Amino acid sequence: MQSKEHWERVYASKAVEAVSWYQPHAEQSLALILGTGTPLTGSIIDVGGGASTLIDDLLANGYSALTVLDLSEAALETAKHRLGTRAEAVSWRVGDVTNVRLPEHSYDVWHDRAVFHFLTSESDRRAYVANVLRSVKPLGHVIVATFAEDGPTQCSGLPVMRYSADELHAQFGAAFALLKQEREVHHTPFGTVQKFIYCYCRLTQA
Q: pLDDT digits over 101-126, tens only?
């Protein structure tokens, strides 16, 4: 996993609206989460959520058990400042998803847009999947988005992995039943295009 120092520098040196992955609203992610049918009291973790506005829209939709995990404390502080008093309703975790200790079988929904593709070593990917298996409830929902096979080869100056839907699903294995795959053409704030693939799976084993 890339260093915490790298991401602290990114968020300290750039406005949130100026990073390539910025979305005014994470519409595709939100639609997939709503489509899981998870009750408003269900536990949702946004991995690598940082300063994303997804948490704002989840709160606006009435979800009450929300966690945001990110390497960058600066990113989380940006989100907290934007939310104001609403931030008190969210659990904020600073940590590396490949080694952070999350509560066992606690999450109904695991969401990750653009973290997994930074895991360029097989050991980090295995550790990530192991953390999903340990922390998501049996029959829980797992939504992961990465750069597609025709997406960028780098992001924020770092190398990334690119996947087709089948390749991404294969990283997770038989315990994850693939329910849906979607593509996204993301237009960055500076006019370039990034192609993403989303895989929505159901955890069938624990």
A: 999 999 999 999 999 999 999 999 99
Distance of CA 18 to the CA centre of its chain: 19
Q: Report the domain count for the chain.
A: 1
Show the domain range for 17.
4-203
**What CA–CA distance (Å, rounded) separates 26 from 24?**
7
pTM: 0.91
| CATH number of the domain encompassing residue 26 | 3.40.50.150
Contact 179, 27 (CB under 8 A): no
Rounded CA gap, 67 and 43, in Å? 8
What is the chain's mean pLDDT, rounded?
A: 91
AA letter at 167: E
Query: What is the four-CA torsion angle of 21, 27, 33, 39, rounded to 10 degrees?
Result: 130
Cα distance between residue 66 and residue 201, in whole Å: 19
**Does 20 have pLDDT greater than 90?**
no
